[in-house]
From TrEMBL:
<comment type="subunit">
    <text>Homodimer.</text>
</comment>
<dbReference type="GO" id="GO:0005524">
    <property type="term" value="F:ATP binding"/>
</dbReference>
<comment type="pathway">
    <text>Purine metabolism; GMP biosynthesis; GMP from XMP (L-Gln route): step 1/1.</text>
</comment>
<keyword id="KW-0436">Ligase</keyword>
<feature type="binding site">
    <location>
        <begin position="29"/>
        <end position="35"/>
    </location>
    <ligand>
        <name>ATP</name>
    </ligand>
</feature>
<keyword id="KW-0658">Purine biosynthesis</keyword>
<keyword id="KW-0332">GMP biosynthesis</keyword>
<keyword id="KW-0315">Glutamine amidotransferase</keyword>
<comment type="function">
    <text>Catalyzes the synthesis of GMP from XMP.</text>
</comment>
<dbReference type="GO" id="GO:0005829">
    <property type="term" value="C:cytosol"/>
</dbReference>
<keyword id="KW-0067">ATP-binding</keyword>
<feature type="domain" description="GMPS ATP-PPase">
    <location>
        <begin position="2"/>
        <end position="197"/>
    </location>
</feature>
<protein>
    <recommendedName>
        <fullName>GMP synthase [glutamine-hydrolyzing]</fullName>
        <ecNumber>6.3.5.2</ecNumber>
    </recommendedName>
</protein>
<keyword id="KW-0547">Nucleotide-binding</keyword>
<dbReference type="GO" id="GO:0003921">
    <property type="term" value="F:GMP synthase activity"/>
</dbReference>
Length: 323
């Protein structure tokens, strides 16, 4: 019978057999799949595994720390963190077009990741032969079931693969669905915030700022997003909504009034959606009190934001993200 306990034991044995005394690398994105895959491989081969986390500066508040501190504490894994915020911000300077942003972020990500890989190989020698991927069963089906060297959803997954992949793949989640992956993560003792995390796009907050991406705007959006997440969690709505992008309309200003002064600030958009698989979605009918609390707090606590608006568009015609 299927138990998470059996899955862990079985996968640990398989990984040991596959990797032997060689070494492996795993990219962490902050998401569930890569975290659980890495934790399984760490359980099997310990410090023969090195994880890489590229901090592109586009994560939400607290997420990088979660990987650096909580994930490492839970798994004991060897982690290389690359602080690439400046590099990404420089590359994104002056860019407002959504596709252009995605391309730049994807390209920089692969460059930084490849460089980190090269450094690890230089440190650890040619025994580095394996790359761990958090490929799930639905990804396998979608890509036609191939195995070996994958290029699964590289368009969509910025935690993506280098083009000239020469590693053998370790994919311990290939038979699992998302909810099973979460159970395995729990069994492995991963932090709740990682195991239960809702979907978050690889390009991060870079595609949630309509307009140019700057450090100042990112900081502002991080504050607004943290407030929305905090209130949704406090209201017990995390399981009910699929995800809730929080978007900064950096190129839009509107007039407001605060205290006895006129303001000319930016709107924040809340985009709570309900969905089964992100292919289609409906806007979530959130309780008015929760919306009111989020709105009051964001306009009070976040500098330069004087308006909060709600996106009531389904998908289609809207996508979940704004860019
Ligand atoms: P859209 O906006 O296309 O989003 O309705 C569908 C789902 O995919 C997520 N998303 C991404 N995930 N890299 C990712 O890993 C990306 O570039 C990306 N773009 C969108 C989005 O958050 C939603 O869950």
């Amino acid at each position: 019978t299927w138990t998470t306990h059996n899955v862990v034991d079985e996968q640990v044995a398989l990984i040991k057999a596959q990797v032997g005394d060689k070494r492996a690398i795993c990219g962490l994105s902050g998401g569930v799949d890569s975290a659980v895959a890495a934790a399984l491989v760490a359980r099997a081969i310990g410090d023969q595994l090195t994880c890489v986390y590229v901090d592109h500066g586009l994560m939400r508040k607290g997420e990088t720390e979660q990987v650096e501190k909580d994930f490492v504490a839970a798994t004991g894994v060897k982690l290389k963190v690359v602080d690439a915020e400046e590099r990404f911000l420089n590359a994104l300077k002056g860019v407002s077009d959504p596709e252009e942003k995605r391309k730049i972020i994807g390209r920089e990500f692969i460059r930084v990741f490849e460089q980190a890989q090269a450094e690890i190989i230089a440190d650890e020698g040619p025994a580095v032969e394996f790359l761990v991927q958090g490929t799930l069963y639905p990804d396998v089906v979608e890509s036609g079931g191939g195995t070996g060297t994958a290029n699964i959803k590289s368009h969509h997954n910025v935690g993506g693969l280098p083009e000239d992949l020469e590693f053998q793949l370790v994919e311990p989640l290939r038979q699992l669905f998302k909810d099973e992956v979460r159970m395995v993560g729990q069994e492995l003792g991963l932090p709740e915030e990682i195991v239960q995390r809702q979907p978050f796009p690889g390009p991060g907050l870079g595609i949630r700022i309509v307009g140019e991406v700057t450090k100042e705007r990112l900081d502002l959006l991080r504050e607004a997003d943290a407030i929305a997440r905090e209130e949704l969690t406090a209201a017990g709505l995390d399981r009910e909504i699929w995800q809730c992008p929080v978007v900064l309309l950096a190129d839009v200003r509107s007039v407001g009034v605060q205290g006895d002064g006129r303001t000319y600030g930016h709107p924040i958009v809340l985009r709570p959606v309900s969905s089964e698989d992100a292919m289609t979605a409906d806007w979530s009918r959130l309780p008015y009190e929760v919306l009111a609390r989020i709105s009051t707090r964001i306009t009070n606590e976040v500098r330069d934001v004087n308006r909060v608006v709600l996106d009531v568009t389904s998908k289609p015609p809207g996508t979940i993200e704004w860019e």
